């Protein structure tokens, strides 16, 4: 019988910045990217080399069978086996998802007991670090991709799953190719992606029609659209930056646009980062321009993320930068929404055809005594049946191909999938993609830039100093 350990909503421990991932919104606090936004299904929001060619698929038909992920016959050995599952998906609809998933797995594995424990961000990060360093390590646990997950791979805390992918090519080939790459480290693959989260500008179609506004295709057009709504007395861009992971998502995107990709990947690697390219200052200038011109929610640094986001849902704001795991909230609030990618400036020197975001997934502890069973559980979770439930029950984009269709996905989700299909790959959430000690300077510094208490050049000088200190320390922590 599966036992569900109660939600640990108020764990009293210091948040470890060594495990920064992007967080925010209901139940996710401030922390790393792959973020959970307001009311989202927790992503939340990787490290150098996390940019991959993305070829997400939109399929007009239903998912076909579960052949790539069917579980084995019941275990008749008589030995009682417990698999401990730890995650940070704490919303009301997520609890039954995991309970029912575990129950199905147990029904075909009579001697297996799945014990589930969950806790929201930021407590998740600190508790996970403690658990992995002790004998109570979970067998299977949620992880963001990129640097957040690569830290565990470097430390030997998680299993390289390459052999399981190689042994089951049908399972491996079922994934969106770009979803596996951010879980790679050196020659191994250390995670199983269960959803692909991306960031898109979501807009209110009714307001665009009312004011005769077209979807912008250049940075200057984007600024003109913002000015139109400001002149009309509306908030152009709903943003609550009380927890600065929110503005960090903008910088994740702008860095991808403005910094040459090879330089950015080198800088995001904690062993080689310098952060001296002028593109980083250009990205901060773009963020500052949006705020200085009054396009963000007023007093954005003091504004709670959820409160600001609600302005979009009630029609007081025309646009908001939203993760795809949150798209379901548009329909819940009766907003007819469209999506577009923020267009890049004409002089941008980076890759302007990337999508900001990353896959979220699960890893298997190196202390797991039954890794084959743990892999089987994750195969079930990434089967077409349970991936479709990921879409319909959790409003989260699937990590496998050919499951999104008009029967199970909203129009805005299908549009986002199409944008991913056209993109060159992912630029991961900044605060999950860089060393925690660098993020400790960079991310809070975004509030200072918006408050005009530090210049973009001044912040990047501090970031460069932090990067040099990390290299000099020659430590992963």
Description:
40% of the residues lie in helices and 15% in strands. It contains 19 helices and 14 strands. The strands form 3 sheets. Strands 1, 4, 5, 6, 9, 10, 11, 12, 13 and 14 form a 10-stranded mixed sheet that branches. The longest helix is centred in the C-terminal third of the chain and has 18 residues. The chain is globular and about 70 Å long.
Blueprint (SSEs and pairs):
Layout: E1 3-4, E2 22-23, E3 31-32, E4 81-87, H1 94-107, E5 112-118, H2 123-132, E6 140-144, H3 147-155, H4 162-167, H5 169-174, H6 177-180, E7 184-185, E8 188-189, E9 192-204, H7 205-210, H8 219-231, E10 235-238, H9 245-258, H10 261-268, H11 278-292, H12 305-313, E11 317-323, H13 328-332, E12 337-340, E13 354-364, H14 371-381, H15 384-394, H16 411-422, E14 425-427, H17 430-433, H18 436-450, H19 456-473
Helix pairs in contact: 9-11, 18-19
Q: Biggest sheet: strands, sense, closure? A: 10 strands, mixed
Question: How far is the N terminus from the C terminus?
Answer: 39 Å
- Report low-confidence residues grouped into runs of 5 or more: 1-36, 38-76
Give the strand tally.
14
Residue share in helix? 25-40%
SS content category: alpha/beta
Into which percentage range does the β-strand content fall?
A: 5-15%
Shape: globular
SS element count, helices:
19
Mean pLDDT: 85
Q: Which radius of gyration do the C-alpha atoms yield?
A: 21 Å
């Amino acid at each position: 019988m599966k036992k569900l350990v109660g939600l640990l909503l108020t764990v009293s421990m210091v948040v470890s910045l060594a495990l920064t991932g992007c967080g925010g919104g209901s139940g996710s606090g401030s922390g790393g990217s792959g973020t959970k936004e307001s009311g989202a299904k927790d992503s939340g929001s990787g490290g150098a080399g996390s940019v991959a060619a993305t070829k997400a698929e939109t399929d007009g038909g239903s998912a076909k069978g579960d052949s790539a992920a069917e579980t084995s016959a019941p275990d008749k050995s008589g030995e009682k086996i417990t698999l401990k599952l730890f995650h940070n998906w704490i919303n009301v609809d997520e609890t039954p998802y995991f309970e029912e998933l575990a129950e199905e797995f147990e029904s075909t594995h009579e001697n297996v007991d799945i014990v589930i424990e969950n806790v929201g961000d930021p407590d998740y990060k600190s508790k996970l670090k403690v658990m992995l360093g002790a004998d109570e390590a979970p067998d299977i646990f949620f992880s963001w991709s990129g640097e957040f997950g690569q830290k565990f791979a470097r430390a030997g805390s998680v299993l390289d799953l390459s052999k399981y992918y190689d042994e089951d090519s049908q399972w491996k080939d079922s994934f969106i190719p770009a979803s596996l790459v951010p879980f790679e480290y050196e020659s191994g693959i250390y995670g199983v992606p269960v959803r692909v989260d991306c960031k898109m500008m979501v807009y209110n179609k009714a307001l665009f029609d009312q004011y005769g506004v077209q979807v912008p295709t250049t940075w200057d057009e984007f600024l003109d659209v913002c000015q139109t709504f400001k002149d009309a007395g509306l908030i152009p861009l709903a943003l609550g930056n009380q927890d600065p992971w929110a503005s960090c998502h903008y910088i994740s995107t702008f860095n991808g646009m403005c910094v040459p990709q090879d330089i950015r990947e080198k800088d995001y690697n904690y062993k080689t980062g310098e952060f001296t390219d002028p593109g980083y200052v250009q990205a901060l200038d773009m963020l500052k321009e949006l705020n200085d011109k009054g396009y963000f929610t007023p007093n954005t640094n003091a504004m709670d993320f959820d409160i600001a986001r609600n302005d979009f849902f009630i029609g007081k704001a025309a646009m908001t930068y939203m993760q795809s795991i949150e798209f379901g909230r548009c329909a819940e609030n009766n907003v007819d929404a469209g999506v577009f990618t923020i267009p890049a400036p004409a002089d941008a020197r980076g890759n302007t055809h990337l999508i900001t975001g990353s896959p979220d997934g699960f890893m298997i502890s190196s202390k797991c005594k039954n890794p084959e069973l743990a892999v089987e559980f994750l195969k079930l979770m990434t089967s077409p049946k349970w991936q479709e439930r990921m879409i319909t029950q959790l409003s989260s984009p699937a990590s496998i191909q050919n499951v999104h269709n008009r029967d199970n996905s909203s129009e805005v989700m299908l549009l986002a999938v199409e944008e991913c299909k056209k993109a060159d790959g992912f630029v991961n959430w900044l605060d999950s993609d860089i060393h925690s000690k660098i993020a400790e300077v960079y991310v809070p510094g975004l509030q200072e830039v918006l408050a005009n208490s530090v210049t973009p050049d001044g912040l990047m000088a501090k970031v460069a100093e932090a990067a040099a200190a990390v290299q000099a320390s020659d430590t992963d922590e």
